[in-house]
């Protein structure tokens, strides 16, 4: 499906508190995803609970706290022009969707390789938002692999030789229950890898406010 008139380029904004301007060549490509991000106080609360795991398992590939996010749609590698087309339709979508009350809770792992913290709160509306986001991306003529949404926040990954540290680190979060917070912005994020196997670094391509007062919803 060719991109419609709504798939136009709109203003960019910042991932967290960092401001970045992405103006690459039209032939470039980048990895992109659409996500929600916890506020700083929620991240600090979880980071404090992780202190024993940080000390006990330093060889895990820990994600930077400022990069923590809840992925709604992972788009993979796309031409930069295709990514830029998503700005305006995602802004329109955010303006018609309410903010969500969420909380970070406990910990777990995928296949002893990926450490995560769980998500509780407005999960029905979180799933609805993810479905709406994915539909909007497809409406712009962009194809991507669709996976079932499993709400979580990725914290770390194991190195190839290590199958024990991630489950043990997850146990450090047993009983953790963060305070509820509002997810108030929808983020379109680009990611890059430093070096051949270095950690990913994230930069906002755009971020748009969700509706905090339902009387203002379009």
TrEMBL record:
It holds the Pfam family LigT_PEase. Keywords: Hydrolase. Its EC number is 3.1.4.58. A motif (HXTX 1) lies at residues 69-72. Residues 37-116, 124-194 form the Phosphoesterase HXTX domain. It catalyses: a 3'-end 2',3'-cyclophospho-ribonucleotide-RNA + H2O = a 3'-end 2'-phospho-ribonucleotide-RNA + H(+). Belongs to the 2H phosphoesterase superfamily. ThpR family. Hydrolyzes RNA 2',3'-cyclic phosphodiester to an RNA 2'-phosphomonoester. This is RNA 2',3'-cyclic phosphodiesterase. It comes from Streptomyces mesophilus. The gene is thpR.
């Amino acid at each position: 499906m060719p991109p419609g008139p709504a798939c136009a380029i709109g203003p960019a904004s910042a991932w967290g508190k960092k401001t970045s301007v992405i103006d690459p060549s039209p032939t470039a490509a980048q990895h992109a995803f659409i996500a929600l991000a916890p506020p700083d106080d929620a991240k600090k609360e979880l980071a404090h609970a992780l202190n024993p795991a940080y000390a006990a398992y330093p060889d895990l590939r820990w994600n930077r706290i400022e990069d923590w996010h809840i992925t709604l749609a992972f788009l993979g590698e796309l031409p930069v022009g295709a990514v830029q087309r998503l700005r305006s339709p995602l802004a329109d979508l955010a303006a018609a969707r309410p903010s969500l009350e969420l909380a970070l809770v406990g910990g777990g792992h995928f296949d002893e390789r990926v450490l995560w913290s769980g998500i509780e709160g407005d999960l029905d509306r979180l799933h609805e938002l993810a479905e709406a986001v994915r539909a909007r991306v497809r409406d712009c003529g962009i194809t991507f692999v669709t996976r079932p949404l499993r709400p979580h926040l990725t914290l770390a990954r194991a190195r190839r030789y290590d199958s024990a540290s991630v489950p043990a680190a997850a146990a450090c979060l047993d009983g953790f229950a963060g305070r509820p917070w509002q997810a108030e912005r929808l983020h379109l994020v680009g990611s890059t890898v430093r070096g051949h196997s270095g950690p990913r670094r994230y930069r906002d391509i755009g971020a748009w406010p969700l509706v905090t007062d339902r009387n203002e919803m379009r």
